[in-house]
User: Fold this.
Amino acid sequence: MSCWETLADYGLRSLGYGERLLPRSDFTLCQQVVLIGSGMIWNIYFGVLALLSGFFLATAAAVGKASTNPVLQRLSNGFIFVFRGSPLFIQFFFAYFLFVALKGVSPVFDAFSAAWLGALIVLFLNTAAYSGEIFYGALQSVPKGDMEAADAYGLAGWARFRRITWPTMLRLAWPAYTNEAIFLFHATTLVYFSGFPALQQRGDALYYASYFADKTFNPFVPYPILAIYFILVTLGILALFGLVNRRLNRHLPQEQRARMKFRPNLLR
Amino acid sequence: MYRAARATDASIGTTAIFSFCTDPGTLGDAAWMACYLTTGKHMALYWSVGTVLLLLAITAPVSLAFGFGGAAAARSSVAPLRWFGKTYIALVRGVPDIAYFLFFVIALDQAFEYVRHKVKCPDWDQPIRQGNDFVVCAAAKLPLGNAPQWMHETYGFFLAVLTFALVFGAFAANVLYGAMRAVPRAQMETAEAYGLTRRQCFWRILVPQMWVFALPGLSNLWMVLVKATPLLFLLGVEDIVYWARELGGAKTPRFTDYPHGDWRMWYFLALLVFYLFLTWVSERVLARVMARLTHGQATVAGEAARKAA
Assistant:
């Protein structure tokens, strides 16, 4: 079987298209690369959607945490503490069994116990909490002079937030937020190890990598393949976020611009 | 492979703690709950909480030592040692760590068995990698095929600790490497001016002063380590996640004295609260340690503490 046939059979296997049976013996390198790559579709799906939706809740949480209203402040603080203070792994498990229990209450919740929605919600809340803390930190370090200048120009309320506070906050938070994005993509690998079932063996990249490692007793091929895929994703994120960073910093002189710095990514 | 040898379900005695637990079917709610939460399997759950704390207690110092070794090696003037240190630090970046957890456990296991195979069975002529199989002689198996169950469990736990320590050691090495570079250059220059040797500079000036720079990073790392402990489950150790799933599942009256529906949600809620508590306590303690360490340091916080005193 040529590699092109393998690609045609397994390229979209993680979405349920193509060959149903996973390879069971005589594993070729091509099969491993294709299937693990196919699994990456899910990692990218979870990462992109959670990041996009989480961004808005994160902004809200940061503004809430920085607000003077005690109710909003406590709410945001509690939200951030719960999702940053507990392991994502346990959050996944809890959410999954919660959704399973809710399924018994009403059929509305049927979709929630599937990974594509349930895990996405957990990742969305989780990344919102982590980014919320980053944005809060940035909000606290918006230069005083900028705000005074805004006052002098007669900007207040929403206009001041929209035109001065928010862009500055984003500019300050962006390097850290980039790391958070990378970190989130890594966290997507936990989904299929935490309760959420991979129906008909439609899993993510790590699911297939560990499938091959278990079948071949040889971790030295699938995990490096997985690693290469993730390094590619990481480089992609760095490039994309670097462009945004350039735009956010475009009004500043060269040496004052925030440098994108790649920090080691830890698990959550 | 210890995974294959793992017992399916340890039969744990069902001796009750409370005397009134002989016939749970007749009990009221509170008494039933008291009996339910003290069954043998729940005791195993509480023990596994101890396992988590034990893992933290062992891993934290070991990975700190690995990190210190890595950071010191990365600063070394001997080139191969420096390359080793830098590679170790760089290796763990950029890849999901859970992949390392899955990778290291098999890789370490096979490495140990391979070395033992080479030492114990020198006249073995078959290849070790036979296609998809990893074959070593019986004497090189770890633990030995006839070893008792607790040996298998301890070996699994040992591998888990080593894996955690290797991964977190690399993170700690990165933090400590940064902290060593953050110690004011003037301090080192003064030490050199006083005629201290390289080694003396390192141990007497650099190491005592670096901790205050390392602490924010290290406390972050501690939080991450706490939150990484549920991954023990993936390494095949019977930890709290395993027991929560096991105990929470619906039970019918045929197999247990305490039948109940699917309670896994509540078990994981309890775990969530447990971890939040652990985080909360850690935050308190680390804040105090930071206050203690900034005492007398040439930093902004140290200066503020001096003025306040």
